[in-house]
Amino acid sequence: MKVKLLLTEGETSRTACAQALLCSGVDEKRGAALSSATLAKRIGWCTDLVSGMASQLLADHWNGHDVNQLASGEDALGRKLPSNAWMALRRLGWSGAAAEDVRVNDRIVRMAQEQAGRVLRSAHWRAEVTAGVLATWPVDPRKRTTNEWDAVREAVPGGQHLPSSVIKSRTRQVSAYVRAASRMPADVFEMEDPPRVARMLLLAACDGQQASIARSEADPKRALLRLQLPTCPNPQSYRDWTWVACSIALPPTVPACAVLHLPTVRTTGGTVRADMTYSHAVPKARRTGHTVALGVDWGLNTLLSAGAVRLHSDGEIAVLGAGAEFRAAGVLAKQHRLRRQSEHLHAKVDHYQRLNKGSALPPTLAGKQDVLRDEIRHVSERRSNLNQALARAAARWVVDQAIAANATVIYLEDLRSMEARGMGRTVNTRLSQAVRGQIATHVRHLAAEVGVAVVTVPPRNTSKHCPQCLAPLRHCKAPDRPATPGWKWAICPNRHSCGWQGDRDQGAWRRIAARGLTHQTKTVADRACGAMVIRSVDDKLELKAVVNPTSKTSWDRSKTGPTRHRPTRPAPRRRRAPSSTRPLGPVEKCPEGRAPTGRMALPRAARRYQGATATSTPTIRHRPRGAALGAGFHLHAHASPPWWETIKDLSSNVRSLGWSETLVS
């Protein structure tokens, strides 16, 4: 039975997923408790049956004709196909069945058809891209001309907004096939074998006769999942299927008012995990009408640089504070070390495979090869977990910055087409393996909970032009080395009219936020994924995307009197008479027996150069403290405090995020 989610004005439904663990179950027919290992074994038998039928369906229909027929949305009689994949496959007559000596119910067949139908529908896009590349094959596959790029984008559906990296990867795939087969392929199905089917149970394709889920009335933080599982690997009759009840502890991210859906169950490393899908009401994010925006710029060592700007009623854009940074140099360095270790292990395994071509490997070398493969899998899991942790932490930081600034939109650079080249082997590899896509996905996921829109903008000239006058910037190594060529520090050539200078990334997020606010009327939703995006830059609107210059300081530091006399003999470190044991004044009073060592601040100072005081990077190699202590993730990532630690300080003079006085009012 489906429960309808009640929505009010200004709300929308959001479907999310959280991972839960199935620790045990109860066989309702026998009344016996099932341990975690027994439950994983029985679910593994069921997933083997489903994956076997799904693999057979993919092998039978892995061709261009069947994939195009399924993607067309109509059957042979011209009737519209259902949206559910298993229903569409049954309408087309593509039925799956288990082995003759195995008895399964119709819901098990549904799960196999749903899984195979989803894979076949996703293959249609790859087939269209490959067909467009083959139809407009260039003279030199390594370097297309401008006319050849226009031709291939016209041949590919939606190619005008498709990242160039996708087209290049398909071109390299075709080139590899030509070198191996000495001929051009007919389509993508000739180059690729049917994909491997994942071992999982898509319970969403079933109904109450196979699985059901409901919240516990006694404890709303728990749910009861009931599903039919086989009692043996090859069930001969329906008597070999019994109902199993599993109590699930819901993750804290699942709201109490959320509507639960049937999860996807899978086995991983001897444990059973359930991807709990739920729907709940969230504030609706709007495309236009934004006045406060958060601009985010990508970087290498400084992974993210972000800051907020405000659009006033007269069209002027002002910066709210100095911005903030998310630095993850230690995490990225560890990721780089793991990547080099993985490459070294792969080189050893490839060497053993070359030795294995002529004759069989000795038992000692075969054992070493197996150990190396296990180590490769272990290193790959470490890299994947590190990337996931970094992406989640960075996304949480970005959304916290938007909440602290009361921003209603987050503008990100669209760097899907960025190609790392010309910067050296190490830097190119680090740029290519950045987790920008994962961070953007997690940012959209977290921002949807608070009703903040996430929009991608074109990255053209965001770091090249001045945010205050749009003049081409002059880049140098550091502010104290203006004559040394570099890329980190940017200086505006208009010293008299503008005079802006600062970190390259700090100027980039100003440009990104200003461009997004001025182009917000051109925001559209991508049909493929539903993400909000600004496709192109309008020259007339770009002229308005300038940030008004702000005063460098609001405190007059000019000198009005003589410098105070500085005694030749320094003050003693201890008082002559000890203070009382109980504090008689405010908490900031010096402890007993200590004298204040700091000098009194002058009310006014001399008028001198008060520009940038940053210096270049020292030549001594820095080693993160976490690496020296053998610590983990959090000692390698540095960011400004989260929003819940800064909101209470907005009324005081201490603000870690640097938001301006206008935010407090």
- Percentage of residues in strands: 15-25%
First-last Cα distance: 49 Å
Q: Reading side by side through the largest sheet, how are the strands ordered? A: 19-20-15-14-11-12-13-21
Query: Helix amount, in percent?
Result: 25-40%
Oligomer: single chain
The total of beta strands comes to 21
The radius of gyration computed from the alpha-carbon positions, rounded to a whole number of angstroms, is 31 Å
Major sheet characteristics: 8 strands, mixed
Low-confidence stretches: 602-613, 627-631, 646-665
Q: What structural class should be given to the helix and strand makeup?
A: alpha+beta
Structural shape = globular
Number of helices: 16
Overall mean pLDDT:
82
Number of discrete domains: 2
Overview of this protein structure:
The protein is α+β, with helices and mostly antiparallel strands. The protein folds into 2 domains: 12-281, no CATH class; 292-552 and 620-664, no CATH class. Helix content is 34%, strand content 18%. The chain is built from 16 helices and 21 strands. Strands 19-20-15-14-11-12-13-21 form an 8-stranded mixed beta sheet, sandwiched between helices. Strands 1, 4, 8, 9 and 10 form a 5-stranded antiparallel beta sheet that branches. A hairpin with a 6-residue loop joins strand 5 and strand 6. The longest helix has 42 residues, at 363-404. The radius of gyration is 31 Å and the shape is globular. The protein starts with 10 loop residues before the first strand and ends with a helix.
